[in-house]
Amino acid sequence: MKQGFVSCGPEGIAIACQPGTYCSDPTTLTCTEGCLSNVNCGCGEVCTGGSCVGASVCGDEQCTGGEDASSCPADCAPNPCGNGVCDAGESFGICPEDCAPPNPCGNGVCDAGETSQSCAQDCPDLKLECYDHCDVYNFFMCFNPGGLQICYDACDAASDAMLKQFSVCAASGAVSCDPSCFDHL
């Protein structure tokens, strides 16, 4: 008989159970879905958990059949790098194919490569901060009319170092008509 076909019943009146079935009762000539051993499975299949499944070959990059991490680590590694999923235990350093690079944003430091566009929480736009501090001053009560525009123009012309100094001064609470902060612009 061909592989997977199992005889069921006494000789002369026996029936052949098809691959993927087994002889559950030889007296009634009954075949039942499933398998008891590899004998009940067709060519290229193995009996696993009562079902015939495709037999696997260790090294075919598919964890199938009776393969597991101990019998075939090449196919069933606990964290298979290159499967498109950043599994537990993988990181960008270990498996850059699956895991995104770490994101330094939000660490409170304007790291190299970060800008106000890529990481606003770490690298604030100094000109926008400068404008905000200009808005905080009451130019119409404390300074000449048009002083707000003068402050905006000074922000536009200032270097990053000057903008940082002005922001430090203005953020320190010296916004009550203290013209000394403008010395930094």
From TrEMBL:
Name of the protein: Uncharacterized protein
Domain of life: Bacteria
Gene source species: Polyangium fumosum
